[in-house]
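Morning!

As promised:
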Amino acid sequence: MKRLVLKFGGSSVGTIDKIKKVANIVKKKVSEGNQIIVVVSAMEGVTNDLKKKSDLISKDFDNKELDVLLSSGEQVSCSLLSGALLNLGIKARSWLGWQVPIITNTNHTSSQIMKIKTEEILDFISNKGVAVIAGFQGISKEIRITTLGRGGSDLSAVAIAKFFKTDSCEIYTDVEGVLTTDPAINKNAKKIDKISYEEMLEMSSLGAKVMQPNAVQASMIDNIPIHVKSTFSEKSGTKIISESDIDHKNAVTGVAYAKNNAKVSIVGVVDKPGVAADVFEPLGKNNINIDMVIQNTSLDGKKANITFTIKREDLDKTLDLIEKDKEKLNYNKITHDDKLAKVSIIGAGMISNPGVTYKMFRSLADEKINILAISTSEIKISVLIKEDLTQKAVKTLHKTFGLN
Ligand code: ADP
Ligand code: ASP
Ligand code: MG
């Protein structure tokens, strides 16, 4: 007998037929004698629709009310799945975040899980019941509903695996596992059998959806192996595990992309200590995340241009803040471009394989793709390019690094 947590994403519970399919997967796991906790996301598209409704009221919709609104999608899917299980003759019950309770901090719309109470659910599952828990949501000490950031039911599943000390944490989705790139834009994408926490964290932070970055980080910290699988096929999926259990044959493990990038250049600021701090301080205080930064200085060393990238949705606010500080920053002009994408290659094998950087740049140059900015870490290289070249760039890099 094993204790399992099975998480089904929005794409796995997107229709009533899919919910019935999920109920059958759960039924099979029960018949094998396992103790089961299921975590569900909202039906596909539901959370986005709810968010659009709040935007129609105000783009600055109150965060605490937004959490009540967005978390409602999971209430629907978790009751439908519990009902479907009962219908198959399986003892089952739904739990919303506050009923468990899953206690989080008060950081609305991106809360962290502090504690999960386990007694009641442990009692239920050890008496052959299937506990169906709503993902993505919790409750704060102020007794207000919180959510864990978009894609956060992955994090719910990892935290449940930790607090309930489960034997495995299985993430079911609409693709076969973690692939070498997004199959939606490159049909040559291949399934990866094993990937390290570090590589997966880079992949998901750099745009590959499959797993929420915070969930990968949580699993890495507590060393909880993740098994990503398809709801719609029996294939073996991908194991996300410790680096020490992986042999890196290739320099590059995967290619990721994120389309929603914007670039801002502040042209002609005085080149003296403190300028970059003056530019970025108001942005930081307004929760605007800066990604890539490039600074170049004029030949006489007196003036500099500072270029940086942000999420497209932060562009208007960023421009407002910089314009407000025009006198202090004393620049000539600001330029911006909001139709950009970041394409990245990721692989722990890069550390021991020299020449990856030039190969990447050469293959993009051969396709006449201009690089606008670059950032690197030990296990990834990212380039900023024009958004309409994303697919071309992903395909060429995927081929160049032998992933086809
Ligand atoms: P879920 O509904 O299960 O939470 P997500 O939409 O969050 O699913 O993640 C699955 C999707 O992620 C896939 O349909 C796929 O298009 C996309 N994706 C992007 N990059 C990758 C990748 N490297 N491997 C697998 N899927 C990817
Ligand atoms: N339903 C939530 C979202 O769309 C959580 C999740 O899917 O994991 O962000
Ligand atoms: Mg997801």
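Residues 9, 151, 154, 209 surround magnesium ion (ligand 3) (CB under 6 Å).

Hope this helps with the figure draft.
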